Amino acid sequence: MSGKKGQWSSKLGFILASAGAAIGLGAIWKLPYVTGQSGGGAFFLIFVLFTLLIGLPMLLSEYVLGRGTQSEAITAYKKIAPSKPGWAWIGRMGVLGCFLLLTFYSVVGGWIFIYSGLGVAGAVIDPAIDSAELFGKIIGTPWITLVGLALFTLTNVLIISLGVQNGIEKANKWMMPLLFIMFIVLVMRAVTLDGAMEGVKFFLWPDFSNITGKALLEALGQSFFGLAVGFSCLVTYSSYLKKDVSLPNSAGSVVLLTVLVSFLAGLAIFPVVFAFDLEPAAGPGLLFMVLPTAFSQMPFGEVFLAMFLLLFLFATLTSSFSLYEIIVAAMMENSQRSRPMWTLLLGVVVFIAAIPAALSSSVLSDVTIFEKSIFDATDFLVSNLMLPLGNLFIAIFIAYVVDKEIVKRELLMGSKMGQGYYSTYRMLMLVIVPIVILVVFINMLLQY
């Protein structure tokens, strides 16, 4: 394949890029604190079940659409069901969702950039500085948040402008192995702390007494957020995939890596939290306020904290690459302008659009939307409304609109899987997946 259309150089490159898209803020930042707030092991178990029964079929569906059409998100829906062009709005909603997601995701990425620099310099752990005070200062100082936002945006622009193979694939081939190595080192240190086993028990021992309707909603949302499905990012990624690659094997590998990273994140965080008698339900500030306090109390704490922050930065970047790519690929379709030009333009627009969310903890703290800050309102719109709706529409489209023979052919092409695998997938997509998404979504609306 030549011209503007890129292609992964290998199956491994695609799997690492897909896993990188999935493994980000969801697995390392959001899952630990949501698990802590929802009672631990039971929530994690439900999250894994949702990931296998709902997330995996949705991941396969996006792969079928992308690899089957060899097109970016918007065009893919037109090509696979040419007589029903209105369904292309799923792709358009995905592009819009990715853009809106970037306007607050990049803000958190900027915080992590600042923290990573301070961590490497040994300036996060300081007896004279309270962790909560440091976090408040970083998110509450306009120029600091804007510098972080600019650094995070610039890094994405540089990588995406290099293309699929030379940019995204190469970055993921370096970042993902390093992420796993650092995780394993951190887990080994965490579980050997005195009192760490209480944290392991909290994370892995199911206690269903704390599971509520809200917890089920969080678990399903975490599954979608954790696999990066619902916004058609992986439609675009899989459009660069060769026809001889097994979609079931690729999707299974991505799900396995995502669950593994989520598992390692829990083992790296909860033993530390319990070893130092901290609060596991600390909320979004868990990584920024609680963990620095814990690391400060252990030998070589500065080194381990710096390693954790770099790991966090790598994971956040690999996820943001997929958000940028779906938008850039859509803009490049039928355009004579170059990838670097479109990427730079997108970076500038994202930076400007993210400024209100970046300043929502400082000069715009009094501005609220439905009693939420600009940052929280954007997060709610994207994560709680657009993401489940995107998954619901994709599920209906793939199950009831696309010719089932096309789906079957694409799903099994290059794979050793047979009719039984396809029949299971089809049953899940026809009944289980849309019903579960709809029930959980309606339950969420009733709560608000």
Automatic annotation (TrEMBL):
This is Sodium-dependent transporter. It is found in: Membrane. The keyword DNA-binding does not apply. Keywords: Membrane, Transmembrane, Transmembrane helix, Transport. It is a multi-pass membrane protein. Pfam families: SNF. Coiled coil: none annotated. PANTHER family: TRANSPORTER. SUPFAM superfamilies: SNF-like (SSF161070).
